[in-house]
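Researcher: Let's run the pair from yesterday's discussion. Sequence first, then C-alpha cells, for each.
Model: Starting with the first of the pair.
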Amino acid sequence: MTCEDSDVCDATTSIEATGLLRKISDPKFLFAAYAVQEILQVLQPADQLLQSRECDLLSGFQVIEASVDVLRRFRSEEHVDEILTKVRNHDLESVVPTPARRKRRLPARLMDAHVEITLGQHEDNDARDTNTVRRQLYFSIIDDCVSEITSRFCERNTELAASVKSLWPESEHFLELSILRPLAELIGVDTSTMISECVVAKEMLLKRFSNNSHKALNDIIEILFPVRDAFPQVYSVYAAALTPGSSTASCEASFSVLIRILTSYRRAMTHRRKANLVLLSFQSKYTREIDLDNFVDIFSAKTRRLQLR
C-alpha cells in the first residue's frame, strides 16, 4: 500500500467516523440508548441466572418476577424525566462540536416594523412535542418487554410455576399432588403412584429442612438423593425442576459454529481484505487453475518496499 492509498483510506475513515459520531450524539439516539441500557441492566441478572449451570426453575421464576416488577416501576413520568435529564446533561460539545450556523439578519425593509402576532411553531412547542413522542416510545418499549416476559414465563406457565414453587418446604402447598400434577405430567411421571410418596417425603423433608443450611432446591435434592429409591417419582420431579432448558446455553456455546468462523485472525482483518478473500473463495473455479509456484516467483520478484514521497 502506498501513501496515497493510505491517505485516501484515512480520509474516508475519518469522514465515516465523523458521520457516525454525529449520529450517535443526536439527542434522539441518546434517549433510546439510555432507555435501552437501563432496561437491559434490569434484565441482566435474569439472563445470567437462566444461563447458569446451577440455575433451577424456582430461582429463575423468582428473579424474573422481580425483574418484571422493576420494569413496571420504570413506567412513570418521573423516570422518563430522569432519562431526559441525562440526555440534556450529556456533553455533546466535547465529542462533536456544533457546526457554525449562518447569522440571521433582519431585512432592511423590516427594520421599522414590529411583530404583533407570531405564526408557526415555537422552539418550546417543538421541544414539548419531541418529549411527548419520546415518552410514548419509552412506555411502549416497557409495555412490550413486560408483556413478552409475562407471556413467556407467567401466563402460559402459571401452573408450571406453581408446581415448581410447591417443591419448596416453606410453600403453603408443599408437595401437594394437585399442584405438582402439571410438572409431573410434563416429564411423564404417573401421578397415580405419587400420592403415598408425596405424603411420606413431605414429612421427612419438613423434619430435616433448615432455613440456615438449605437455601435452594439443590439443597433439598441432596436430602432426597440418598433415599431416591424410596421416592423415585418425587425425586424425578425435583430433578426436572433443576434442569431447565435454558441451562444448555453454556454447553451450546462451547461448540458454537461462530467460534470456528469468527477466529481472532478474522476479527483483526480489515473489511477490504475480507471482501477480497470472499471474492477469491467465490471464484474458486479460477483460483484452482493458478500455478502457485509461478505465482510465488512473480510475487517475490516485485519490490515490496514502501514507496515514500
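Model: Moving on to the second of the pair.
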Amino acid sequence: MRLYFLPTLALLACNGETSDDNVQQCDLPVAEAGTDITISMGEVVSLDASASTWCERNEDTVTAQWSFVRTPSESTLSVADLSENNSDLAMNAQFTPDKIGEYILALTINDGTDESVEDHVVVTVQIADLPPTADCGGSYVGDIGQIVGLDGSASFDPESSELEYSWSLLAPGCSNLIDDSIVNQTTANAAFVPDCDGVYISTLMVSDGNQWSEPAICSIDVASSNELPIADAGDDQIFGGCAPDHITLDGFGSYDLDGDVLFYEWSLLGAPNGSSVTSDDISHPDTPNPSFSWDVVGEYRFQLQVGDGVMMSAPDLVNIEVEDIGDNASPMADAGEEQELEIRASWQPFSQSTDCPELEFVLDATASTDPNGDSLTYSWTETSGALSSNGGVIQDSNLAITTVTLPSRAPGTGTTNMTFELQVSDCVDSDSKTVSISYSCINN
C-alpha cells in the first residue's frame, strides 16, 4: 500500500496569525488493494478494498474501481468479469481466472471530489497438485517361459511431473514368482517370465513425487484351457448417516464360464482416516456376501477375487461410503392416491337385497423416498375415527403396503369418509402425509 502524507493547511489572518474560522480540510482518499494472492486454477479470486481510507464526510459518494493492469497472454478476461453483476465498481469484486499465470489489478478510490493514486495487487494462479493416474496397459496374454512385457507408458500426471513407477505381481498357486521377479520393476516398461499356466495379476502405481496414484490392475492370461472366472463385487453403495451397524457386501454376480464352483476371497484395500477396520474384520470373507462393521464415516474400499480351483480372477473393487449423520436429510412421505370406493349390494328378483360384502383395499407408501438412501420405517393411522367406528381395521400399520378391511354392511347407510396418515422415518427425521378414502355401499 502507498501512503501519502499531506501538509497541514491553516488559514492565516492578515497579521500572520491562524484564523479561528479555518475550515477542516479532507485528506485525499488512499487505495489499499490488499495483500498479494496465490491460488490454484479453478478457484475464485476475492478482491478486498476494505482497508482503503477516505474522508468521512464523503462516505456516501465513495466508489472503488478495479481494473486489470496485466493478465496472462492467452487470458480473455476484462473488467466485465470482475464481479457477478459485471461491474468493476465494488469494494469486494471477484473473478475466476481463465489461464495459469500472473494477474495484476489496480484499485482507485474516488470520494466524489478527489481520486486516489492507484494501488496494485498481484494474483498468482498455479496448477493444483492433483494425483497422477496409473495405466498398466490393459489385459495381456503370454506363454510359459516367454517374456511378457508390461507397458505403463500411458500413465500420466496432470501437472506433467516426472513419474516414479512401482509394479507388483500376484501369481497363480502353481507359480514361484514374486514381485521381485519383475524386471525393470521401477520403470514404465517392466517384464517377467511366467513359469506355469494360469492368470497373473500385475498392479501398477505411479507417483509424482508428492502423492501416489490409485492402483491400476491388469491380468496376464498364460496358456490355459481353463476359462478365467469373473469376480463381481457389486455396485458401489452410499449410506446416509443412518447406515446399519453391519453392512453386507454382494459378490453374487461373480461367475465362471466353465461352470466351476467358485471360491471367494474378500479383502479391505482402504478405509477412512481414523478407522481401525482391517481385512480381519470382514466376517466370512470366503463367502459371496460377507459383512463388516464400520467405525468412522467415510469411504471403505473392498476387493473381491474368485477362484475356480485352478485360476484366480482379476480383482474387482467396490466402494462403500458412509455419510455423516450431520448431513442427514429428512425423508419424504407419499401416502398414495385418494380413493373413492363404491360397492353394490347383490339383488335377486322378487327378493330383498343383501348386504355389501366385506371390503378390502390397499394403502401404498412405496413412493416415499429418502434423499440419503436410508432404510425407512412406516406407520399408518386412521385419524378421523371413521374406520374403527365402522368396525374396520388396518391389517399391519407398520408396512409400506398394507391392507384395510371393512366388514359387510347394509346398503344405503351413506358414505364413510376416512383419513389415513402415513409417517415415514429414518433414524433421525420423519415426514407425514395423509390420504382420503371414501366408501359407499349402494343398493341396487
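Researcher: Give me one sentence on the second I can quote.
Model: The helical segments are 386-389.
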